[in-house]
């Protein structure tokens, strides 16, 4: 089902605001658009996101997301450094919004293949949105990246069973009851007004 982009803010509890720099890496399809919205939310919450979005979608909605980020003075990188240490030194976390559930369609294509080759070697925490890039949505990792944090959108996908990182969140409070019933979902309880809930405590 389609996920309302406006709900995709999520916590970075391991990243104190005294070290607020975040690199948001966006692919050309839906998961990349979610990454753009994520960057906007991070900016609202006083983080300092930078976006790498090398293949911009012609979709009018995605273009609007890009414009919103530009109007908020979020910088866009013209290239992703291949020297991984430059990324480690400049940022305190990476948001992986490259492929998501579109992994099978785009994993081997440029610029996604080069991006994944770089992200596999970074040493700062990686937060993947919905499905870690390079993973099969059902079977799990097949040589993709190894994120520290996974944020499942709507509900965890089958591949989340293979996730071995430190924290797993789900953002699905917005799902209507009839959708939950149709897909036999068993959503967790969301405390207070929270839009995300932790499925795995920090390790």
From TrEMBL:
The record places domain YjeF N-terminal at 1-187
One GO MF term attached to the UniProt entry: NAD(P)HX epimerase activity
Gene3D superfamilies with a match to the protein in the record = YjeF N-terminal domain (3.40.50.10260)
**Per UniProt, what is one Pfam family of this protein?**
YjeF_N
An example GO CC term for this entry is: mitochondrion
Q: Which PROSITE patterns match?
A: YJEF_N (PS51385)
This chain's protein is named ApoA-I-binding protein 2
- Give me the gene this protein comes from: Yjefn3
